[in-house]
Amino acid sequence: xxxxxxxxxxxxxxxxxxxxxxxxxxxxxxxxxxxxxxxxxxxxxxxxxxxxxxxxxxxxxxxxxxxxxxxxxxxxxxxxxxxxxxxxxxxxxxxxxxxxxxxxxxxxxxxxxxxxxxxxxxxxxxxxxxxxxxxxxxxxxxxxxxxxxxxxxxxxxxxxxxxxxxxxxxxxxxxxxxxxxxxxxxxxxxxxxxxxxxxxxxx
Length: 203
Known about the structure:
Elements: E1 19-23, H1 31-40, H2 47-60, H3 62-68, H4 73-80, E2 93-95, H5 97-106, E3 109-113, E4 119-121, E5 136-142, E6 146-152, E7 160-161, H6 163-168, H7 175-179, H8 181-190, E8 200-202
Helix pairs in contact: 1-2, 2-5
């Protein structure tokens, strides 16, 4: 039977049979970072830690990231660099840029679900052989705009790979696609029309 939750109707239909848990979080401008913090196992109140880790990740390889985010890298930095309790719009999470930093900083595979086109993000510069644990975390855009943490079953389909990963991954990172080929193919069979062309802001 399908998992029942008041926000289930906001999750893309193709994933409904695979949802095992949804956790909503407070918004106040940090909602996306709270959802990511929950996904990473730190809890909803560690949004500040996640923000600071992402600032460090971006600043520590700024010139390299400038080749990935050829447009909007300073906007990305500005969106992250805010540590007060309530964040104005310009400091909300930026998708897909922020989740690329998450994948690289924390060594996770991240799937971002929306009804406009879901995407998968792998670490750009390290392959699966460099990690003992191949953890997959998921956030989903709901009305608001706002992000929530979603837990999916292990055999769930994986959305289309982000074009940014395809364009900028290191050769050693190619193994991610190989590792998850079957699950990527299942998603294409279930939902063949998906485009990586949107940037979504979230409160």
